[in-house]
Amino acid sequence: MSYICNSINTVEDFRQCFEDYGRRNQFSYNALEALFDYYTEIAEGCGEPFQMDVIGICCDWCEYDTMQEAAEAYDIDEDIDRDDDEAILEWFHDNQHAIAVDGGGVLVAG
């Protein structure tokens, strides 16, 4: 089986893939950078290239503008101070797969 594979070496290339698939507005600018860094680390860690799947990424992740918005969406434990971004992110790391986004948002794997 043969296939065509494009190299994605920069966050700009990564963002362009979302543009090409009509998913430019799926994630914020900063969230796409966080996802690029996340998948780059995975690829480097396992020594295998990451196979880009824009639609799969869109299905796997949900972005929230604030930690409080994410906490409300997941109805996190009452014991967590919902005004404490670090406590909320720690809860997500313990209970979900999450990535902090520059600017205060968070990506949560669904």
Give the helix/strand layout.
Layout: H1 11-20, H2 29-46, H3 54-60, E1 61-64, H4 67-74, H5 85-95, E2 98-101, E3 105-109
Description of the molecule:
By secondary structure, the protein is mainly alpha-helical. The chain has five helices and three strands, in the order αααβααββ. It has helices spanning 11-20, 29-46, 54-60, 67-74, 85-95; strands spanning 61-64, 98-101, 105-109. A three-stranded antiparallel beta sheet has the order 1-3-2, sandwiched between helices. A hairpin with a 3-residue loop joins strand 2 (98-101) and strand 3. It is elongated and about 45 Å long. The N and C termini lie far apart (31 Å).
Salient structural properties:
110 residues; mainly alpha; 5 helices
Q: Taking Cα atoms only, what radius of gyration do you get, to the nearest Å?
A: 15 Å
Quote the beta fraction. 5-15%
Oligomer: single chain
Shape: elongated
- Count, helices: 5
Termini gap:
31 Å
Order the strands across the largest sheet as they lie in space. 1-3-2
Briefly, what is this?
With 110 residues, the protein is mainly α. The chain has 5 helices and 3 strands.
